[in-house]
Design goal:
This protein has one helix and no strands. The protein has 99 residues and is mostly helical. The N and C termini lie far apart (144 Å).
Length: 99
């Protein structure tokens, strides 16, 4: 009977040690999971911030492109007017030379 009780106690001690080891591993895994979840949330926030910054940069870039296109149109119009004035001056000079 003593041998059976000793064997049972030995198995109980082994089982207790095994449960303690499993519990420790489980706690470590829970800690890792919590850390990974926290990291994921931070990366998600950073990703959202980067996406917002890229969207704003695109809007700004698009606005600058529109301003540049408007400036090019204005420049073209100015040069057409200047060219027209130059043509008028040549015609006036030709008339003045004929008189």
């Amino acid at each position: 009977a003593l041998a059976a009780e000793a064997a049972f106690a030995g198995r109980s001690a082994e089982r207790g040690a095994w449960l303690l080891e499993v519990g420790t591993r489980e706690e470590a895994l829970e800690d890792r999971l919590a850390f990974a979840t926290s990291e994921n949330k931070q990366l998600s926030r950073r990703g959202s911030t980067c996406e917002e910054q890229l969207t704003e940069a695109f809007r700004s870039s698009h606005s600058h492109m529109e301003q540049l296109a408007d400036a090019v149109k204005e420049k073209d119009l100015y040069f057409r007017r200047l060219s027209g004035q130059g043509e008028e001056l040549r015609m006036l000079a030709a008339r003045a030379a004929l008189q």
